[in-house]
């Protein structure tokens, strides 16, 4: 799909052709598939460029990507020329604005990567803050911990001035130039100046896209739904393989495998490819509105993959809300289930891969369900670039360093269960949602399996919203192993008789 149709920005023909292709393939798999329409916005990039004019050797091309919902420069063909002022916080902008030092300039937010949550704030709101002080445009250092002159785009709040992301290297170049001018204005008399051209346009609520829904009816409780999926749209750079084509495809493979069981799980498994996640999450909002919770049909577990499919690590999980308003106590059951089904396996990338249960999931498409009290989970891959171990296809392999723990892994589950196999479906008090045993082995097994592994963190953002988002970011084996882990967790949620 990604090779054939390329990136799938919301509102584009490429997205809708990809959806049509997926539907054809699903029907060929004899799976039950429907769609639901979603009204979406259509933002288009068009022509864009940035040149460093002075003080330098001449017009030097810089590396930018316009941000979603950006307007064009006042003259989309000839652009605008302005001096650049560098800021690192909203407070710093406010102080400069009070001295009227921002008016007529391009504001550059140059903040080294600390976390996506923190740095994305400047991408999202930088232009809105800057326009209030008379800035003519807003540039933001790309939200990434690593760069090879690779800008990273993303959505931003609608502003009156153009806004774009700039590569890490170019952001630092402009700041160095400004610092030289400030420190020695006689030797470096020129303030850094650039020329920005952007022809971006937005058509609000102008297109119809679709969520794709695939369903496997439960054998005993078809009214109880385990929903799992990813988002089918992407940004308009790269090919949208990491974010989030792969997330959709491992959910698809999950349903294919579950449909081949001799008997389906107790609960209904529903796979959704949500549309328009990248700009408004309209697909998730429409899905939640079209599928309210009622006695004849209610969600018991929502599971999303939207942080890549490198080697699997596990899930992050938040329990659902009971009728009395209290959070259910189901995390320990899932921890035991993950240990039982994956704790001793070695065929999922590394020993114990996929078994972890972490707190605080986030998924933009399942967020409306989470807010209604549905138990929610997020697929968590291992970070592709933790040192000294890397799961990147391009990394030099030195080995996992934890093979000597094999004997401990084989005996781990039996040790804590008096030498007997531990099955979470049997060793659980379903009526009270309490495990019949205390699982003191959890911290020990974590030390055994994960010496060189950590849940996905900065490595995902090497690729995120950039030209680097392609099939080359992961291997076919990693895709298969991630699908296997998603299928196991989905089966656990759909087969278990407990309320999560």
Automatic annotation (TrEMBL):
<keyword id="KW-0256">Endoplasmic reticulum</keyword>
<dbReference type="InterPro" id="IPR007484">
    <property type="entry name" value="Peptidase_M28"/>
</dbReference>
<keyword id="KW-0479">Metal-binding</keyword>
<feature type="domain" description="Peptidase M28">
    <location>
        <begin position="211"/>
        <end position="454"/>
    </location>
</feature>
<keyword id="KW-0645">Protease</keyword>
<dbReference type="GO" id="GO:0005783">
    <property type="term" value="C:endoplasmic reticulum"/>
</dbReference>
<dbReference type="GO" id="GO:0043171">
    <property type="term" value="P:peptide catabolic process"/>
</dbReference>
<keyword id="KW-0732">Signal</keyword>
<dbReference type="GO" id="GO:0006508">
    <property type="term" value="P:proteolysis"/>
</dbReference>
<dbReference type="Pfam" id="PF04389">
    <property type="entry name" value="Peptidase_M28"/>
</dbReference>
<keyword id="KW-0325">Glycoprotein</keyword>
<keyword id="KW-0121">Carboxypeptidase</keyword>
<keyword id="KW-0378">Hydrolase</keyword>
<dbReference type="InterPro" id="IPR039866">
    <property type="entry name" value="CPQ"/>
</dbReference>
<dbReference type="GO" id="GO:0005615">
    <property type="term" value="C:extracellular space"/>
</dbReference>
<dbReference type="GO" id="GO:0070573">
    <property type="term" value="F:metallodipeptidase activity"/>
</dbReference>
<dbReference type="GO" id="GO:0005794">
    <property type="term" value="C:Golgi apparatus"/>
</dbReference>
<dbReference type="GO" id="GO:0046872">
    <property type="term" value="F:metal ion binding"/>
</dbReference>
<comment type="subunit">
    <text>Homodimer. The monomeric form is inactive while the homodimer is active.</text>
</comment>
<keyword id="KW-0964">Secreted</keyword>
<keyword id="KW-0865">Zymogen</keyword>
<comment type="similarity">
    <text>Belongs to the peptidase M28 family.</text>
</comment>
<keyword id="KW-0333">Golgi apparatus</keyword>
<keyword id="KW-0458">Lysosome</keyword>
<keyword id="KW-0482">Metalloprotease</keyword>
<dbReference type="GO" id="GO:0004180">
    <property type="term" value="F:carboxypeptidase activity"/>
</dbReference>
<keyword id="KW-0862">Zinc</keyword>
<protein>
    <recommendedName>
        <fullName>Peptide hydrolase</fullName>
        <ecNumber>3.4.-.-</ecNumber>
    </recommendedName>
</protein>
């Amino acid at each position: 799909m990604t090779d054939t149709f390329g990136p799938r920005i919301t509102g584009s023909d490429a997205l809708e052709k990809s959806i049509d292709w997926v539907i054809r393939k699903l029907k060929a798999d004899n799976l039950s598939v429907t769609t639901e329409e979603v009204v979406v916005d259509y933002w288009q990039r068009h022509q864009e460029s940035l040149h460093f004019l002075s003080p330098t050797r001449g017009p030097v091309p810089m590396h930018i990507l316009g941000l979603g919902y950006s307007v064009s420069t006042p003259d989309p063909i000839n652009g605008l020329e302005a001096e650049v002022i560098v800021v690192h916080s909203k407070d710093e902008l406010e102080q400069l604005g009070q001295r009227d030092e921002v008016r007529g300039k391009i504001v550059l937010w140059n903040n080294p990567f600390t976390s996506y949550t923190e740095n994305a704030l400047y991408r999202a709101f930088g232009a809105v803050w800057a326009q209030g002080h008379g800035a003519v445009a807003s540039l933001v250092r790309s939200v990434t911990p690593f760069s090879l002159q690779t800008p990273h785009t993303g959505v931003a709040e609608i502003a009156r001035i153009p806004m774009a992301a700039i590569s890490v290297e170019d952001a630092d170049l402009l700041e160095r130039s400004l610092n030289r001018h400030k420190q020695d204005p006689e030797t470096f008399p020129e303030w850094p100046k650039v020329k920005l051209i952007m022809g971006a346009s937005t058509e609000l609520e102008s297109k119809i896209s679709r969520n794709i829904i695939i369903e496997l009816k439960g054998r005993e409780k078809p009214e109880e739904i385990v929903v799992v999926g990813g988002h089918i749209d992407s940004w308009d750079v790269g090919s949208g393989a990491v974010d989030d084509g792969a997330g959709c495809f491992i959910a698809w493979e999950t349903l294919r495998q579950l449909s081949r069981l001799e008997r389906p799980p107790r609960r209904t498994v529903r796979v959704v490819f949500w549309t328009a996640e990248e700009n408004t999450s309209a697909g998730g909002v429409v899905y939640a509105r079209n599928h309210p919770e009622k006695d004849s049909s209610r969600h018991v577990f929502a599971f999303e993959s939207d942080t890549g499919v490198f080697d699997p690590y596990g899930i992050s999980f938040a329990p659902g809300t009971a009728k009395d308003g209290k959070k259910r106590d189901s995390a320990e059951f899932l921890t035991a289930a993950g240990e039982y089904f994956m704790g001793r396996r070695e065929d999922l990338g590394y020993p114990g891969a996929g078994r972890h249960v972490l707190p605080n999931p986030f998924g933009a498409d399942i967020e409306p369900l989470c807010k209604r009290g549905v138990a929610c989970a997020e697929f968590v891959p291992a970070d592709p670039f933790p040192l000294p171990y890397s799961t990147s296809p391009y990394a030099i392999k030195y080995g996992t360093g934890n093979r000597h723990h094999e004997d401990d892994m084989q005996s781990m589950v039996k040790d804590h269960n008096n030498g007997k196999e531990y099955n979470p479906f049997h060793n659980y008090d379903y009526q009270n949602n309490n495990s019949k045993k205390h699982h003191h082995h959890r911290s020990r097994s974590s030390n055994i399996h994960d010496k060189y592994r950590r849940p996905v963190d900065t490595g995902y953002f090497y690729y995120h919203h950039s030209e680097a988002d392609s099939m080359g970011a992961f291997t076919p084996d990693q895709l298969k192993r991630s699908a296997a882990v998603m299928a196991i967790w989905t089966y656990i949620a759909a087969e278990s008789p407990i309320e999560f």
